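Lecture notes, continued. The same structure-token format from the folding unit now serves as the input rather than the output. Read the line below as a description of shape only.
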């Protein structure tokens, strides 16, 4: 019996839908126009048990956000240029196990997206390509700067992301972690900044209906506020 590995439609530039045919998924891709000129495309392919390849047409200089989302398995994403060169890979993004890539397309042509289930798990996933927002770019820059250990730069990038979109709880948590990591010894105002970002993230998680995460963050913030234990 073939492994079931399907994907559902999502996105703006790239939409993907599947039908299970004899144990294999026949993939129909449609590429729509976005802010920059995009060549319409429709293609049919075969989805393998642990890997799916999708194609979209992009324009040089176009800034895009490419995402793979699955609730069934830990996915990974690879982006290939029209000439086959690997442009980017992602196993996760920020605090999410779902991979995302914010990328400026280097040339006009057909790009390939390779979605994988690295551990051979079966399930469904969604792949999307859309024009990246200024928030997407600022947040991705913050994550990149953290990896590069440029914590002052990351703090500035996360603050810019919050200015652009103040409703994303993960940005506050990443900012709090960057503030802590950047400071060898926390000054009182830095400690207050870490705690306030935890509390703001808790409020946003509660608004989104995730009360368990909200309560956990508030408990953590309260513990740091009432004790002399350094903020982690």
């Amino acid at each position: 019996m073939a492994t079931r590995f399907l994907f559902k439609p999502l996105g703006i530039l790239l939409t993907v839908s599947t039908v299970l045919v004899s144990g294999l998924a026949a993939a129909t891709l449609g590429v729509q126009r976005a802010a920059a000129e995009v060549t319409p495309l429709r293609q049919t392919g075969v989805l393998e048990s642990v890997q799916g390849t999708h194609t979209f047409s992009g324009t040089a200089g176009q800034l895009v956000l490419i995402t793979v989302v699955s609730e069934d398995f830990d996915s990974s994403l690879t982006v290939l240029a029209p000439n086959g060169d690997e442009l980017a890979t992602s196993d996760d993004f920020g605090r999410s196990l779902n991979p995302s890539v914010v990328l400026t397309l280097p040339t006009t042509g057909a790009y390939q997206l390779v979605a994988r289930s690295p551990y051979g798990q079966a399930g469904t996933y969604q792949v999307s390509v859309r024009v990246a927002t200024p928030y997407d770019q600022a947040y991705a820059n913050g994550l990149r700067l953290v990896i590069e250990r440029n914590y002052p730069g990351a703090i500035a990038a996360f603050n810019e992301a919050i200015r652009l979109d103040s409703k994303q709880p993960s940005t506050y948590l990443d900012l709090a972690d960057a503030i802590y990591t950047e400071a060898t010894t926390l000054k009182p105002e830095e400690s207050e900044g870490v705690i306030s970002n935890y509390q703001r993230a808790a409020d946003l998680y509660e608004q989104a209906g995730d009360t368990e995460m909200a309560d956990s963050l508030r408990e953590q913030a309260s513990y740091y506020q009432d004790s002399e234990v350094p903020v982690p």
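Point for the exam: The CA atoms of residues 126 and 146 lie 27 Å apart.
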